[in-house]
Amino acid sequence: MQTFSTSIARSAWTNRFCAPTPEDVIDGIHPLPRLAFARARQMLAALDEEFIWQGVWKWSFVYTRAVGPWCAAAFLIPDPIKPRMCIPLDKMAVAKLTCKPLSPLVRAALCNCPIIENTRWPSWVLSEPSAVEEILGSLIHAQLRTEPLSQRR
Are the CB atoms for 78 and 25 separated by under 8 Å? Predict the structure, then answer.
C-alpha cells in the first residue's frame, strides 16, 4: 500500500514536464532502499552525475566519465517503490569480468540481462547497502578500467 509521501514522490518522479529536485525523489524512497541508493551515489561520486529524464526510467541519475566520448557508465533509477541501478557493459568489460569469479548476484544479472548492440544492460533492485558494494565492487572498475570504487571511501 502506498503512503501519501510515496504517492507524492512517485508523481514527482513520473512527471516529465515538471522537473523535481533530486532530493524530492530520493526522499520518497523507503528508508532501507534509500540507504542503498545513497551508498550507490557515494560509490559513483568519482563520475560526473546528471539528474535527467530517461524515458522509461523517468527522472534518473546518469553517471558518465569525465574524459572520452559520452557513454553512460551507470544509471540510478529512484523509483520510490523499487529503486534500481543499471550498469551497461560492452564486450571488453564483460571479457574482463570473465577472468575472475563473480558473485551469484552479479552473475545472474549478467546472464539474464538484455543485450542491445553488443552491450549488456544488467540491472539490480537496490535493497541493501552491502549488495550495492558487492555489485559495484565487481563491475564498475571493469567498466572504467580503474581500481574498484569500493576501495575509495
Answer: yes
Does residue 106 contact residue 135 with C-beta atoms inside 8 Å?
Answer: yes
> How are strands ordered across the β-sheet holding 115-116?
89-90, 119-120, 115-116
Domain that holds residue 72: 4-151
pLDDT in tens, 44-94: 998 999 999 999 999 999 999 866 666 788 999 999 999 999 999 988 888
pTM of structure: 0.83
Helix (H, G, I), strand (E, B) or coil at 34: helix
Q: Please list, in sequence order, all residues whose beta carbon lies within 8 angstroms of the beta carbon of residue 66, skipping any fewer than 6 positions away.
A: 47, 48
- In whole angstroms, give the CA distance from residue 2 to residue 61: 23
- Counted domains in the chain: 1
Q: What sections of the chain are H helices per DSSP? A: 4-14, 22-27, 31-43, 91-97, 104-112, 129-144
Q: Please report, for residues 94, 95, 117, 118, the alpha-carbon distance to residue 68 in angstroms, rounded to integers and kept in the order given.
A: 20, 21, 20, 19
Q: Mention every residue, 6+ apart, whose C-beta is less than 8 A from residue 71.
A: 64, 65, 88
